Amino acid sequence: MPILVTGGTGYIGSHTCVELLNNNHSVVIVDNLVNSNKEVVDRIEEITGKRPIFYEVDATDGEKMEEIFAEHDFDGVIHFAGLKAVGESIEKPLAYYKNNLLSTMVLMENCLKYKVNRFVFSSSATVYGDNEVPFVETMDLLPTINPYGETKVICERILTDLAKVNPDISISLLRYFNPIGAHKSGIIGELPQGIPNNLMPYITQVAKGKREKLRIFGNDYATADGTGVRDYLHVVDLAEGHVVALHKATPGVQIYNLGTGKGTSVLELVHAFEEATGVEIPYEIAERRPGDLAECYADATKIKKELGWVASRTLVDMCRDAWRFERNLE
Ligand code: NAD
Ligand code: UDP
Questions:
Q1: How remote is the CA of residue 265 from the centroid of ligand 1, in Å?
Q2: Residue of 14, 63, 84 to test ligand 1 pocket, by largest number of atoms within 8 Å of CB
Q3: CA 120 to centroid of ligand 1, rounded, Å
Q4: What residue's CA is closest to ligand 2, atom 24?
Q5: What is the tens place of the pLDDT at every residue in 209-259?
Q6: What is the DSSP code string of 17-47?
Q7: 283 found inside a domain
């Protein structure tokens, strides 16, 4: 029985499709290609030798989604489809609320109607807001100060309410920290449009000479070297985490952090990249970016204890693999 992967041609979705296919699941992708391209389906096939079924459909389109659910007997849904640029969400709040909430609601309507009892949701560490680090699943959620983060909080609440009255359904709320890196083949990875917002794609573009230098947003935070600290994990570890969450799903709501549990500063990541690749990254110190936290890293003990998952790939693996992917691009 196939797994429905919305957003399956995107960064995390494509890596998860590879892991699902490698674990003998068949995969149906729904993606409207707003932030990805169709060639990714060929790449997934190239890596795994198996071709996922692909629908170029908007996950908010109730009619088309129902047709897809009627056509396939899904065993589970992994819902990656969503808009994810924090800055853009402040400019276009309605687009973010509509896309991220409606897609989740349309999918859940169909899961209930067609009795699909396993649902995995892409949440984010952003739901913790400005809590004390490390972030633990039991913490109260704090305001996230941007519409993107609010969409994740609201979706978590909708899904939790649905689970209360549908006792057969299993909802996994996976809170990702900072996925970076790429598949070791170097043919799928993160493909930002325009100027990258995120640190690692910016670094790889500087390394390639596409951008002159990295701007480090603040070196006066209360961290060891003054630059922002994040919990970077390899995207393939993250993808494997989805397969484990799906296999070990039990009825009710399960919330898990997916991170390494270790914080790395911007400067540490720059130096790790230089060591892993031998390429120097010129940088300058710039103003803090509004809305940034000083530190964000996981308490990753719950998922290890309950599901046996740990993010084991190193910072060097992440840098080397991100660089291999960037070098393969035109
Ligand atoms: P991505 O943009 O690479 O992938 C998302 C995919 O969803 C894209 O292919 C896009 O075309 C598709 N999409 C968007 N809206 C759609 C819609 N209405 N219908 C169909 N397809 C649609 O992003 P990603 O980094 O792979 O993130 C996947 C999910 O994980 C997102 O929900 C994101 O919010 C969440 N997340 C990402 C990160 C991160 O650092 N990358 C961190 C935390 C959470
Ligand atoms: N960052 C930076 N320069 C950039 C992009 C990001 O200094 O061009 C910093 C940012 O301030 C943060 C860290 O790198 O401390 C990770 O940023 P990213 O946007 O990748 O992740 P997020 O802040 O969303 O966790």
A1: 25
A2: 84
A3: 13
A4: 198
A5: 999 999 999 999 999 999 999 999 999 999 999 999 999 999 999 999 999
A6: HHHHHHTT--EEEE---TTS-THHHHHHHHH
A7: no
